[in-house]
Amino acid sequence: MYKILLACSAGMSTSLLVTKMREVAEQKGIEAEIEAMSADNAFKVLNKYDVLLIGPQMRFMKKKFVKAASDEGIELPIESIDPMSYGRIDGEGVLNQAIKLTGK
């Protein structure tokens, strides 16, 4: 089971992407829990996920997320969502990015 969190400024711009990712996961038989939320809320739940993908418009926040995870002793891959995949709402591309980052 992959636990994937997407964070953006309000949690809304990633909602459609999450829907597409869930569809692809279901079609491929991949067990995944995929959620989207605002960055403020994401900071509070980092310990519940295997990977954090940040909306490209918020990539400047990566260092803050890395520090927050480190301060809590959480080992969590954190990356910005590929801008091309994000712009195309490419659920498969973003799902593949998340799975690759988990190393599972």
Please explain how this structure is put together:
It is a single chain. The protein is of the alpha/beta class. 43% of the residues lie in helices and 20% in strands. A 4-stranded parallel sheet has the order 2-1-3-4, sandwiched between helices. The mean pLDDT is 94.
List the SSEs and their pairings.
Elements: E1 2-8, H1 15-28, E2 32-38, H2 39-42, E3 51-54, H3 62-71, E4 78-80, H4 83-87, H5 91-102
Parallel strand pairs: 1-2, 1-3, 3-4
Helix pairs in contact: 1-5
Quick synopsis:
It contains five helices and four strands. The protein is an alpha/beta fold and 104 residues long.
Order of strands in the sheet with most strands: 2-1-3-4
The profile of the biggest β sheet is: 4 strands, parallel
Radius of gyration: 12 Å
How large a portion of the residues is in β-strands, by DSSP E? 15-25%
Give the count of helical stretches: 5
| Percentage of residues in helical conformation | 40-55%
